[in-house]
Amino acid sequence: MTQGTSAQATIGDSEFDRDTAVTLREPGVYDTELSAGWTIINAVNGGYLLAVIGRALGQALPHPDPFTVSAHYLTASQPGPAVIRTETVRSGRTLSTGQASLFQYDEEGREVERIRVLASYGDLDALPDDVRTSAALPAIPPVDQCFGPQDAPAPIKGSTAITDRLWLKLDPATLGWALGAPSGKGEMRSWFGLADGRDADPLSLLLAVDALPPTAFELGIQGWVPTVELTVHVRCRPAPGPLRIAISTRNLAGGFLEEDAEVWDSADRLVAQSRQLARTPLGR
Amino acid sequence: MTQGTSAQATIGDSEFDRDTAVTLREPGVYDTELSAGWTIINAVNGGYLLAVIGRALGQALPHPDPFTVSAHYLTASQPGPAVIRTETVRSGRTLSTGQASLFQYDEEGREVERIRVLASYGDLDALPDDVRTSAALPAIPPVDQCFGPQDAPAPIKGSTAITDRLWLKLDPATLGWALGAPSGKGEMRSWFGLADGRDADPLSLLLAVDALPPTAFELGIQGWVPTVELTVHVRCRPAPGPLRIAISTRNLAGGFLEEDAEVWDSADRLVAQSRQLARTPLGR
Questions:
Q1: Which residues form the Acyl-CoA thioesterase-like N-terminal HotDog domain (chains A, B) (predicted)?
Q2: Are A118 and B72 a contacting pair at CB < 8 A?
Q3: Res A150: pLDDT
């Protein structure tokens, strides 16, 4: 994997790990600091937020790995301090279910809820090896035929702090929007990694599913596409090396659209699936 | 629509409405009686349960229609009394978000939580008419070339009470399992209605996404496929007349599978999308 760094970061010692760290305040309650490094324009990325909450739930629940995480986004998060309050809903033998809310503070210091999450956790390493899949690897050209924000002559519209922390190489077939000629197809495909070379783990998959430019760009829609709800299934612990992500939108209607993401690892396994419901920008 | 009844039931006056009715006990708390009429073998259907909870949330929240509903299934529900406790998490101008839990009672009368739900509600009739969809109608043959449980010489394995309340006409291309010759493809397609002729509404769409035989049957897997998590997006108020439902599984691995459902109405509009994570039966 060539992500342009010489000293490669590792799982547990990387920008992503530091910026998603949580500190136990009291049983089930975790303090954190949302980093300005994972913002798009001024919005904190929804996948990054999910990874922060996912880390807190992994510490609070008896099982370590997110299997299915459903998040409803309530109000826009800002960089700065936040608190995550978790509840263990059910502890089973192979799965446990938890709930978490992320709060920030208003001018009077009162808690304002940003996101509420339900999640079921398990142990990915305890799963059997059976695979009976009909899913096919996304058709993404080799890395050297793909393009990232760093390859653009000028900053790509909509790119901001988060692009410095990601290694993205987008399929040129889904880059029409960046050249003013969106394809009209609701598709986005990319190679994906963290810029400091840290390999993927289940928590960074929660980031990955929401880290590409929105499919709406390829539908000719500009502006912010705020997530209403995002559900991620983590199906397998990702192998070291780059990920491939394919996002598609089939139905834009009534001011809303769905975005489905598939994440594949370097061993050609489908490691995560997600779907979100998002709003189209007003007036478009 | 020919569903074999002469006196057609209507929205508000039907088996489905009576069996999903909830009674206000105190603000935000609703009593209900889970009907034995919506069971598969001895399990209460997960989509029926979601419709009951969805009705309670529609009464508790300031907006009437489910837009996105995420349910985590905790313990198996039984026919009989239940209580639904709701919380209004956020009330916005166009969307409100709520939480609900359905409880039943153990032998000592203590509440046992069955399902926990996060949901965002809105007003389907207030949405703009824009549609920019690439989704295609499922290829299901005409009704008279499809088959339902009533067409089988003997009761189809796995069919039980719920089949008397549904009008299902399955695409023969996805019926191999019923003849002992599953196709190996994770697909199930059917015409869908309620047996008493009641038309679809947003609440019955919550039932519809989980009412077909599981795709696992066509993958050669028998037995119960319990849902861990199910998220439904309702995208449009369905027109009167029969629905068409297509379910697909792309990835069966590690003892879990996803089931994606699309529901189309008689006006050829994609009215609901869902995805669930389910467990494959043990030992298969």
A1: 35-120
A2: yes
A3: 78
For chain B, what percentages of helix, strand and coil (3-state, to nearest 5) are there?
20, 40, 40
CB atoms within 10 A of CB B57: 29
Tokens of A19: 């910026």
* Cα angle for residues B75, A98, A200 (degrees, 5° grid): 120
Give, as one character, the DSSP assignment of residue B10.
B
| Residue in A117, A130, A215, A251 to test binding to B, most B beta-carbons within 10 Å | A251
| Partner A contacted by B237 (CB < 8 A) | no
**CATH superfamily label, A15-125:** Acyl-CoA thioesterase, double hotdog domain (2.40.160.210)
**Which of A281, A239, A226, A233 is CA-nearest to residue A261?**
A233
Which residue is closest to B123 within chain A, CA to CA?
A254
Q: What is the amino acid identity at position B203?
A: L
Both structure tokens of B23 = 């009674």
Same fold? B15-124, B143-279: yes
Fold of B15-124: Porin (2.40.160)
pLDDT tens for A200-224 read 999 999 999 999 999 999 999 888 8
Answer yes or no: are the C-beta atoms of A140 and A146 closer than 8 Å: yes
Please state, in angstroms and rounded to a whole number, the distance separating the CA atoms of residues B178 and B148.
11
Q: What angle do CA A239, A242, A244 make, to 5 degrees?
A: 100
**Cβ–Cβ < 8 Å for B66, B206:** yes
Residue B65 has pLDDT above 60, yes or no: yes
pLDDT, tens only, B169-207: 999 999 999 889 999 999 999 999 999 999 999 999 999
Q: Do A253 and B130 touch (CB under 8 A)?
A: yes
For the residues B227-234, what does the mean pLDDT come to? 98
Among B67, B255, B258, beta carbon nearest to A127: B255
- Hey, where are the domains in chain B? 15-124, 143-279
Interface of B with A in 104-143 (CB under 8 A): 113, 116-120, 124, 127-135
d(CA A75, CA B179): 52
- What class, spelled out in words, does domain A143-279 have in CATH? mainly beta
Nearest to A19 by CA among A49, A42, A41: A49
Among the partner-chain residues A131, A233, A252, the one whose CB lies closest to the CB of B277 is A233
Distance from CA of A94 to the nearest CA of B (A): 11
Closest chain A C-alpha to B237 CA, distance in angstroms: 11
Positions of E strands within chain A:
23-26, 29-34, 39-40, 43-44, 65-73, 80-91, 96-105, 111-122, 131-133, 166-170, 187-194, 227-234, 243-248, 251-253, 256-264, 270-279
